[in-house]
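2024-03-11 09:14:02 INFO receiving multi-entity request
2024-03-11 09:14:02 INFO entity count = two
2024-03-11 09:14:03 INFO echoing inputs for audit
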Amino acid sequence: MRENSERPGQQGKRPSLRTFVFTALSYRKRAGMSAWLLHRFTGTALVLYLVAHIMGLRSLADPAAFEVYITTFRSPLFKIAEVMLLGSIAFHAFNGLRIMIQDMFYRSENQRRLFYGVFLLSVLVTLAGGLTLVFPYFIAPFLP
Amino acid sequence: MNRMNDKQENCRSTGFRAFGWLMQRVTGVGLLLLLGLHFWLQHMPNGFLATAEEYNALFRQFGASGGELADAVAGGTLKEALPGEHVITYSKVLERLQSPLWKMIDIALLLLALSHGMQGLGRVVGDYIQSVPVRKVAVALGWVAASLLAWQGIATIMAVGTN
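2024-03-11 09:21:47 INFO inference complete, emitting structure
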């Protein structure tokens, strides 16, 4: 493990994406850090998705344009992206719930186990929902 | 020195940031319910989406309609549903948004998502932009973007079924 002083974020450098990435990589790999990093990463991705979603739905003004818009997202690649969307929402939601529980009610002695619970729950929800989403594309064609 | 840890800057904004912290919890719980409902109804197979049979009947209608949709069918920008696939269609959205209650729910979801997302983005921006003037510009731009997106979203929702 590197010393604190070697961390780029603590050397008085100006913050930048590069500094951020190196700082994040220099942290000890612990549950709390993964929770923070994943929450931030999924949150940012979801904001970008929200903007695209709102702008894309302008096609609702024209029924024909809307049908074409929806068809774009019915390709195998976008179905995988949809599963990743569900995964991001599930993790962000359950981890947010964990943060609220810890903030408002108690400081858990078992916060690491709570995080593993959050991660497991997100994986389960993503698997259940994701398999349903991709079923017609990736599973049904291979069934007898 | 214009740094985030500048005492004056911190003191001035503490109350506002604490309110933001609380709002992030409130909107978070709201999103847990409304976004969960939204994803369940609009992405998972259920009655708010057309079944493969319903969609393919519609697809044949589009092909025979002779308009823009017939061109889309011929040009391949519309494609038939796979067996078991559920597809969201304009008529299904129209059917749901006939109800003012659904319009209100969708607008509430839009505003909750925008405020939660922009508040979160503000925290991220605050972490990486330490120069106070630059941060103020970024926050102002965020407010402008959020207002425009809210306006666009509400206009989209309200316009469904009026033309």
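2024-03-11 09:21:48 INFO post-check: Confidence is low (pLDDT under 50) at residues 1-5 of chain A.
2024-03-11 09:21:48 INFO post-check: The interface with chain B takes residues 14-17, 20, 40, 43-44, 46-47, 50-51, 54-55, 57-58, 60-61, 63-64, 66-68, 70-72, 74, 82, 86, 89, 93, 96-97, 100, 103-104, 129, 132-133, 135-137, 140 of chain A (CB under 8 Å).
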